[in-house]
Specification:
The protein is an alpha/beta fold. The protein folds into 2 domains: about 5-125, Rossmann fold (3-Layer(aba) Sandwich), CATH 3.40.50.12370; about 135-285, Rossmann fold. Helices cover about 40% and strands about 20% of the residues. It has 9 helices and 10 strands. The protein has helices spanning about 20-30, 45-60, 75-85, 110-115, 145-165, 190-210, 225-235, 255-265, 275-285, and strands at about 5-10, 35-40, 65-70, 90-95, 120-125, 135-140, 170-175, 215-220, 235-245, 270-275. A 10-stranded mixed beta sheet has the order 3-2-1-4-5-10-9-6-7-8, with helices on both faces. Helix 3 runs parallel beside helix 4. The chain is globular and about 65 Å long.
C-alpha cells in the first residue's frame, strides 16, 4: 500500500457522497498518492461536479488531484481503460446493491472489474470507519508454491500497511481442508495429520511475517464459509483476499471460492492478484 503512488477513485453519478472517496483520502493522506477522480457516464456531463470535488480536495491539503469523465463500451471497461492510461496501482470503487433481493451480491459490472482489472481493487461495501478496526488477511498457508508465497507476502504487506494507516490490528485467517478418505496422500486422510502439517506451515509463516498466536486463526473447513465467519466474529472493517490466476485460464478469472467469499463479506474487500495474473490481465487490457 505504501508503494501506491496513484489511486483511481471511481465516483457514482447518482450518489454525491462517495464512500470510495472517503477511503481514498485516508490512504492518500498517509501515502501522498495522487488521486484521479473518474466519473463513468455517457449521458450527462459531470465536469462541474468533478471540478468542485477536485477544488475541495486541494483545499483539504490533497495537492495532486486530477479528474476526468470517460465512457468506453461498459462500466468496467471504462475503468480499466483509465487505470491503464493513468498507471494507477489501486482502483477504489463503492458497491451499492441495486436490488434488495440481492443485497449481499456484487453487480455483474463489479464482478467483471474484479476479474479483469490488472491492479488491486478495493471494493467499498460498508460505511464503517477503518480507524482502530481489525484488518483480516486471508491466506492459504498450506500452499507453498512460489506464486502463492509471493501473493501471501503481498497480502500480509498490504494488511500491515492498512493496519498502520488506520491504527488498527492485523489478523490472519487460514482454512485447511477436512479429511478425505479418498485422498491419495495419507496425510489428507486424517484430521490430526492435516492439522499437524498446517500448524507446522503456520509456525514458519508466523516467523516470517511476525504474526502472533492470538492474531492467527486456523480452522478446518471451506474457506468460503470460514473467512466470512471470521470477518463477522472479529468485526473486521476490511478483508484482504488474493487470487493466483494461471495463464491460459480465460480472462484470468478469480476462483469460485473467492467469488463466494466476496459476496458473503459485509465489510470492505481488497482483492490482490499474483504477478502472473497482473501481467496477463495488463496484456489483455492493452490488446
Amino acid at each position: 500500500m505504501q508503494a501506491v503512488r496513484s489511486i483511481l477513485v471511481v465516483l457514482d453519478p447518482e450518489h454525491a457522497h462517495s464512500r470510495a472517496l472517503t477511503r481514498a483520502k485516508l490512504i492518500a493522506g498517509v501515502t501522498g498518492a495522487r488521486l484521479h477522480l473518474l466519473m463513468c457516464d455517457k449521458k450527462q456531463d459531470h465536469s462541474a461536479l468533478l471540478s468542485l470535488l477536485s477544488s475541495q480536495l486541494h483545499d483539504d491539503g490533497y495537492d495532486n488531484v486530477t479528474h476526468e469523465q470517460k465512457w468506453k463500451d461498459s462500466l468496467h471497461q471504462s475503468i480499466i481503460h483509465v487505470q491503464q492510461a493513468e498507471g494507477c496501482e489501486l482502483v477504489i470503487k463503492e458497491h451499492r446493491p441495486d436490488n434488495p433481493l440481492r443485497k449481499a451480491l456484487l453487480t455483474p459490472s463489479d464482478w467483471k472489474l474484479l476479474r479483469e482489472c490488472p491492479c488491486a481493487v478495493l471494493m467499498v461495501k460498508s460505511e464503517c470507519p477503518w480507524t482502530g478496526g481489525v484488518i483480516l488477511a486471508a491466506v492459504d498457508v498450506g500452499n507453498q508454491d512460489e506464486a502463492h508465497r509471493l501473493l501471501h507476502a503481498s497480502i500480509i504487506d498490504h494488511g500491515y500497511d492498512i493496519a498502520s494507516l488506520a491504527k488498527g490490528q492485523l489478523h490472519v485467517i487460514s482454512a485447511h481442508p477436512s479429511p478425505m478418505l479418498s485422498a491419495s496422500d495419507p496425510v489428507y486422510q486424517l484430521t490430526e495429520t492435516i492439522e499437524k502439517r498446517y500448524r507446522e506451515a503456520c509456525t514458519a509463516f508466523q516467523a516470517e511475517f511476525d504474526i502472533t498466536d492470538d492474531r492467527l486463526h486456523i480452522a478446518e473447513g471451506p474457506a468460503d464459509v470460514l473467512i466470512p465467519y471470521t470477518e463477522k466474529k472479529l468485526d473486521a472493517v476490511v478483508t484482504i483476499v488474493g487470487t493466483v490466476a494461471r495463464t491460459g485460464i480465460s480472462g484470468a478469472l478469480i476462483g469460485n471460492t473467492a467469488e463466494v467469499v466476496l459476496d458473503a463479506l459485509e465489510g470492505d474487500v481488497l482483492v490482490l492478484k499474483s504477478e502472473e495474473a497482473t501481467a496477463h490481465l495488463a496484456e489483455l487490457a492493452r490488446g
